[in-house]
Amino acid sequence: MFRTQSVENIQFLPFLTTDINNLSWLSYGCLKQDWTLITVNTIGAALQSLYILVYFYFSPEKRRVLLQSTALLGVLILGYCYFNLLIPDVAVRLARLGLFCSVFTISMYLSPLADLAKIVRTRSTRCLSFPLTVATFLASASWTLYGFQLSDLYIMVPNIPGIVTSILRFWLFWQFPLDHDKLYKPLQA
């Protein structure tokens, strides 16, 4: 965004959903008093919030970005009220918050598969990011192992789809490799 001074071809929704995901897991970590979850998700939420601010700065559609960010804030306030005011029992709150975080994480990991039909039809992985696929694989594998170590199904189970979808995307990169010659137009001398 800084290099191009634009948000062209960059979707805003992933920044918002990742911020909600980080803030939800941060709440789970605080409730569970798990400093690994607290540290990682505090950093993640801060970075995602910074990305949102940068996106807002460069976006020509500031009203839409502001409305979506306000909706995010509304969802967070409703979530806070539900989990902290309507569920007084801490064990029940931890279970429901863990379930919410798990469902949200699974949906985030499955979202790149929305482009699956387009990738197979065009036989091109141009819309996929290989570095992001590697990062997703490593992060989801790490969180799965961490959840296994803690015997915490809410951490372990939702990260397994991240491993599976990453392996599927690796297979797509292998099956439909990028043709770097087609990505760039030749320079006329």
From TrEMBL:
Subcellular location: Cell membrane; Golgi apparatus membrane
Stretch forming the signal peptide: none
Transmembrane residue ranges: 35-58, 65-85, 97-116, 128-148, 154-174
Keyword Glycosyltransferase: no
Membrane topology: Multi-pass membrane protein
GO molecular function terms attached to this record: glucoside transmembrane transporter activity; sugar transmembrane transporter activity
Keyword terms, alphabetized: Cell membrane, Golgi apparatus, Membrane, Repeat, Sugar transport, Transmembrane, Transmembrane helix, Transport
Record-linked Pfam families: MtN3_slv
Name of this chain's protein: Sugar transporter SWEET1
Species assigned in the record: Chelonoidis abingdonii
